[in-house]
């Protein structure tokens, strides 16, 4: 049976983890950097990878878990292929980040912090990205999109969606309303 | 590759670089910081090169330089044309051709790209004449937006690493510490502890190994001074750190940077590699026999890691949990060794002090706060961006003269300084001079320089709730007062914003907040109640309106407002009805629509999609 995209994401390869560990040679103090690399590669921290890390560094598994659960950048649950991160820093908050989040929740059909069942989309909030003058900001694999309005969110959604998906039929976002998309942002 | 083995070789290389600089040569400086990138500066750079048709770059007739951010974000992408110093703003890639053909070709200025003073419509042509430039005192940020941060040659052409040569060859460690002390520099990371004194403690600690750390974890949600500086002039931070290491006898250095700042990290990595390549970092720096290397460590998104003891735990590969002090890092820090931590802006002030002398540094500022302060101004303000001003400037000058005041005809309400650890200052105190001491008297703090301007449409209770929500989420959970105290404070504030508050809630806040302050383990919990206390101090009437009159005067708090469609304005275009996430809006095409207030969640969607400004809130 051919592996589906989902299985491929979740099963870490021993050789990949070893490669990541070989780059970092500082023992216990490289734990964060190792986890960052794994998170980067798999978009989350697979259970098996954490066990491998614990055995090889070596540090107790409990310590690996305590680090993995402490920092916001790590996720123990699989994340979607396309991730929308909405900044909820002060400047973005004052300028209406909540509206942007509401819109994305409607379009994606998931709540903030969730991943769609088909592992296509994740919606998250992040702390200030340091681009406050452009708030509200949304980050995707396409980079930063600033001064977001509802119509810009819709456009961004279509752009990200057109990048295609691994399981093509599943995970289509809710229909984007054409009328809203043509609406100019309020002055 | 030039390996510099002495100050003489450094100077010789500098002269060689300067000899190659033609001040009359045309140059396009394009801001390529995070902000302008989000606005399309990369595409613009491509189009400029295209329009120059091979004439751009070293071998062509025109230099094209991608710089860091000069500070005026809202107006990006920015292009400056040298030698005339013409400043263009909001440049789109389509303007590239006109800039090359007209401004570079015939010397013609393109009016539509100039800055227009919002107060009188006057156009300003030259960079130094821009209101937000001319009112600033740019020292630490002097080179931001002027140089290519990815080329060490650009930093050297402006005197870079001369201070390091002086510190290595002409000064002893005590001499360096003495100059830093006399400059009056206070830590720019928030607390304002005198840097020279801290260095002395670390110098006096005996140990085979000592560390220095640059705190680039800028966690204040709404501040971007450090990011901007890291992107625009990374070598100044590296130079400051090496000088500090020499003064304190440090054997290794770390820069702890936020992983949310990829561009800053990229520029820092480049700067470190270049410094190493040229013998300015690593073994036997500039032939002096002094060794130091600097490593970058990435944070993983935890605000508390900005706190120095948590930061060190994080570098050691542990959860970023703060520990009680003493022992202070100067006695027992990273891996138990003496360690000195300074903020990005503190480190990059060091080369300026050593190169120009402590007297020069102390020329500006107030009696107890010397030098300049760097603020990021966001919120309801016209010139959003980053500014550097002398300590002691008044809030009024900063917000209205430099910042251009509040947009529209809205009224200024208050300014929030110091982020989640800070407080707000209302209009009555606009004439207060800004320095460490005056701000703390008013119930705010200098913090690391994040400044949020609010106007009549900002609800202060909601703002307090916003910050409390932030610290509650970021609390590391070790100590009870912070873990539970912030939770209860947040619950009370949320209740008030939801319209379910009781008059007694104000008293409860006033009772609990000071307890959390005095009994928390680290700075996070000790300062977390500040936004509540300061909004209570100056805007008690807003709290009372929420709990007694059940009204949100600013029209923000969802539980206390009602949305209505203005029948005079509604054209029946149906856009609001289609976009309402809860189907609360009904109406036929071309007929006035109505909102069912029982269903409406006050999400604000209709207000944003309505083309006719037809939604009313009260
Ligand atoms: C919760 C908390 C967050 C902090 N965040 C930062 C930060 O983001 N950047 C920073 O430089 N200092 C931060 N600090 C202050 C540091 O603990 C430390 O005082 C500072 O880095 C010292 O540098 P300085 O003397 O140059 O100011 C924070 C402190 C606390 C309590
Ligand atoms: S608040 Fe969103 S980028 Fe700073």
What does the model show?
The complex is a heterodimer of chains A (187) and B (618). Chain A is built from nine helices and four strands. Chain A has 187 residues and is an alpha+beta fold. Chain A folds into two domains: 5-70; 82-180, Glutaredoxin (3-Layer(aba) Sandwich), CATH 3.40.30. In chain A, strand 3 and strand 4 form a beta hairpin. In chain A, helix 7 (97-108) packs across helix 8. Chain A is elongated and about 50 Å long. Chain B has a five-stranded mixed beta sheet with strand order 12-11-15-13-14. Chain B has a four-stranded mixed beta sheet with strand order 2-1-3-4, covered by helices on one side. Chain B is globular and about 80 Å long. The interface between A and B is large, with 55 and 68 residues. The structure holds flavin mononucleotide and FE2/S2 (inorganic) cluster. Flavin mononucleotide (FMN) binds at residues 187-191, 193, 195, 215, 217-219, 304, 306-308, 341-343, 346, 448, 522-524 of chain B. Flavin mononucleotide binds next to strand 10 and helix 21 of chain B.
Mind summarizing the main beta sheet of chain B?
Answer: 5 strands, mixed
Mean pLDDT metric of chain B: 93
State the CATH topology of the largest domain in chain A. Answer: Glutaredoxin
| Rg over C-alpha atoms of chain A, rounded to the nearest angstrom | 19 Å
- What is the N-to-C succession of helices and strands of chain A? HHHHHEHHEEEHH
Q: Please indicate the count of domains of chain A.
A: 2
Q: Considering the protein shown, what is the CATH homologous superfamily of the largest domain in chain A?
A: Glutaredoxin
């Amino acid at each position: 049976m051919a592996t589906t995209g989902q299985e491929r994401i979740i099963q870490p390869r021993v050789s990949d983890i070893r490669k990541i560990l070989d780059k970092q040679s500082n023992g216990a103090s490289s734990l964060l950097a190792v986890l960052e690399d794994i998170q980067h590669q798999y978009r989350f921290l697979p259970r098996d990878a954490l066990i491998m890390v614990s055995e090889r560094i070596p540090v107790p598994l409990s310590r690996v878990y305590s680090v993995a659960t402490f920092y916001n950048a790590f996720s123990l649950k699989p994340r979607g292929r396309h991730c929308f991160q909405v900044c909820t820093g002060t400047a973005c908050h004052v300028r209406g980040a909540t509206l942007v989040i509401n819109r994305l929740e409607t379009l994606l059909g998931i709540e903030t912090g969730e991943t769609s069942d088909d592992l296509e989309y994740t919606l998250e909030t992040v702390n200030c990205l340091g681009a406050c003058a452009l708030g509200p900001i949304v980050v995707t694999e396409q980079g930063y999109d600033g001064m977001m309005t509802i119509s810009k969110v819709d456009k961004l959604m279509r752009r990200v969606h057109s990048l295609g998906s691994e399981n093509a039929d599943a995970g289509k976002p809710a229909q984007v309303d054409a009328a809203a998309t043509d609406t100019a942002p309020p002055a | 590759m030039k390996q510099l083995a002495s100050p003489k070789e450094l100077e010789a290389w500098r002269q060689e670089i300067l000899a190659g600089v033609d001040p009359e040569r045309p140059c396009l400086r394009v801001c390529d910081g995070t902000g302008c990138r989000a606005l399309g500066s990369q595409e613009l750079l491509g189009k400029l090169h295209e329009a120059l048709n091979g004439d751009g770059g070293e071998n062509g007739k025109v230099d094209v330089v991608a710089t860091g951010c000069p500070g005026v974000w809202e107006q990006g992408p920015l292009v400056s044309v040298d030698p005339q110093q013409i400043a263009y703003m909001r440049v789109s890639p389509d303007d590239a051709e006109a800039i090359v053909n007209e401004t570079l070709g015939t010397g013609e200025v393109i009016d539509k790209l100039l800055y227009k003073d919002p107060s009188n419509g006057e156009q300003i042509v030259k960079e130094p004449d821009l209101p937000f430039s001319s009112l600033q005192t740019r020292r630490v940020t002097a080179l931001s937006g002027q140089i290519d941060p990815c080329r060490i040659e650009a930093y050297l052409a402006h005197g870079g690493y001369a201070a390091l040569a002086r510190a290595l060859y002409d000064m002893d460690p005590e001499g360096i510490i003495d100059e830093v002390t006399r400059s009056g520099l206070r830590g720019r990371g928030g607390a304002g502890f005198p840097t020279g004194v801290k260095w002395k403690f670390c110098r006096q600690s005996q140990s085979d190994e000592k560390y220095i750390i640059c705190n680039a974890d800028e966690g204040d949600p709404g501040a971007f001074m450090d990011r901007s500086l890291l992107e625009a002039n990374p070598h100044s931070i590296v130079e400051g750190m090496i000088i500090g290491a020499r003064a304190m006898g440090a054997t290794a250095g770390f820069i702890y940077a936020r992983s949310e700042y990829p561009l800053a990290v990229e520029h820092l990595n480049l700067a470190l590699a270049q410094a190493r390549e040229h013998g300015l970092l690593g073994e036997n720096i500039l032939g002096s026999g002094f060794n130091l290397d600097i490593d970058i460590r990435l944070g993983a998104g935890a605000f508390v890691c900005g706190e120095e003891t948590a930061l060190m735990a994080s570098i050691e590969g542990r959860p970023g949990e703060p520990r009680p002090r003493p022992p202070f890092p100067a006695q027992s820090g990273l891996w138990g060794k003496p360690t000195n931590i300074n903020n990005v802006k503190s480190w990059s002030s060091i080369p300026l002090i050593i190169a120009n002398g402590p007297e020069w540094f102390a020329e500006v500022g107030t009696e107890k706060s010397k030098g300049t302060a760097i603020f990021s101004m966001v919120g309801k303000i016209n010139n959003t961006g980053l500014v550097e001003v002398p300590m002691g400037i008044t809030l009024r000058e900063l917000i209205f003269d430099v910042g251009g005041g509040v947009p529209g005809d809205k009224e200024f309400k208050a300014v929030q300084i110091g982020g989640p650890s800070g407080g707000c200052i209302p209009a009555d105190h606009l004439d207060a001079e800004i320095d460490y001491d005056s701000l703390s008297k008013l119930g705010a703090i200098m913090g690391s320089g994040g400044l949020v301007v609010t106007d009549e449409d900002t609800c202060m209770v909601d703002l307090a709730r916003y910050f409390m929500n932030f610290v509650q989420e970021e609390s590391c959970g070790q100590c009870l007062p912070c873990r539970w105290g912030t939770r209860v404070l947040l619950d009370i504030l949320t209740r008030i914003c939801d319209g379910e508050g009781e008059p007694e809630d104000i008293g409860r806040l006033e009772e609990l907040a000071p307890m959390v302050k005095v009994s928390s383990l680290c700075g996070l919990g000790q300062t977390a109640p500040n936004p509540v206390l300061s909004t209570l101090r100056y805007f008690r009437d807003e709290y009372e309106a929420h709990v007694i009159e059940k009204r949100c005067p600013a029209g923000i708090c969802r539980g206390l407002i009602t949305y209505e469609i203005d029948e005079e304005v509604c054209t029946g275009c149906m856009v609001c009805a289609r976009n309402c996430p809860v189907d609360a809006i009904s109406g036929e095409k071309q007929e006035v629509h109505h909102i069912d207030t029982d269903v409406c969640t006050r999400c604000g969607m209709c207000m944003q999609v309505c083309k006719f400004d037809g939604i009313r809130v009260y």
